[in-house]
Each structure stands twice: as C-alpha cells, then as structure tokens.
Design a protein that fits this description.
The protein is of the alpha/beta class. The chain has a single domain, classed as NAD(P)-binding Rossmann-like Domain (Rossmann fold, 3-Layer(aba) Sandwich). It has a 3-stranded parallel β-sheet with strand order 1-2-3, with helices on one face. The chain is globular, with a radius of gyration of 16 Å. Keywords: Cytoplasm, NADP, Oxidoreductase. It is found in: Cytoplasm. This is Sepiapterin reductase. It comes from Oesophagostomum dentatum (Nodular worm).
Length: 136
C-alpha cells in the first residue's frame, strides 16, 4: 500500500493536478474494538496512522480518512453470517441502529456524503470523518 501510494503521488504532481486529495477509506473499528474484527481493526488503525503522517509531511496534499459507516456490501453480509461473535452477527443482520451497529447504508448514500466533504474542502488535512459525524 505504501509503495503504491508513493508511486501515485510521484506521478500526480501539482503540475498535473493543482488540488491533490488522498482518501483513505477507514472504519469505526480503527478507533474502537469489536469482537472478531481485531485483525481488520489493526489494518485500519495502521492505515489511519500512515495517512495522518502523510498529511503532516506533505502540505500540498489534502488527506481525508473517511469512515463510510456500515455499507450494504459483500463484506457486510459475510460478517453477518460468519463472525464468531454472536453479538456481531446479530448486529449485522439487523438493519437498525444499535450500540454496535448503525443503520446499514447503500454505497450511493455514503459516497454522496464523502464527495460533499471533498467538494466543500473544509476539513483539516489528516482528519478522520465518519458518515454519522454531525456536520458543522
């Protein structure tokens, strides 16, 4: 991942694109522990740390770590069916908000909101924004 990002950033210079954005798709599990999602959590937390570092190392790039919320995807379905934790399975099979799980979103719902944040460009580089964060 790091090598790939470096290659892309070397290719897409400010001469090619005046405004350069990097979006890291993250998850609530990067900052809050959940049973049966530990390995996924570690990966997401490490990526967030990497992109926070990138944000402070290169002020010509605007970095956003966007947490899309629970999205109706194949991964969501697999967790609902195969998680070893009964509470996680139950939370992911319900389509309503709970302590563990928020209402399941469509990919379009969450992408529209992410694009709004990018178009408005009001976030601090390196910020972490969740779909369910209150807009200011």
């Amino acid at each position: 991942m790091i090598q790939f990002n470096n290659l892309i950033l070397e290719s897409i210079t400010q001469e090619v694109a005046k405004n350069r954005f990097v979006v890291n798709i993250t998850s609530l599990v990067a900052v809050q522990g959940f049973p049966s999602l530990t390995q996924y959590s570690v990966g997401k937390a490490a990526r967030e740390a990497f992109f926070r570092g990138l944000a402070v190392e290169d002020d010509t790039i605007k970095v956003l770590s966007y947490s899309p919320g629970p999205v109706d995807t194949a991964m969501h379905e697999i967790i609902a069916k195969e998680s070893f934790d009964e509470g996680i399975r139950n939370a992911f099979t319900q389509n309503s908000s709970s302590e563990v799980h928020r209402t399941t979103l469509t990919p379009t719902q969450t992408v529209v909101k992410m694009l709004k944040y990018l178009e408005e460009d009001k976030f601090q580089s390196g910020a972490r924004i969740d779909y369910f964060d209150e807009e200011k």
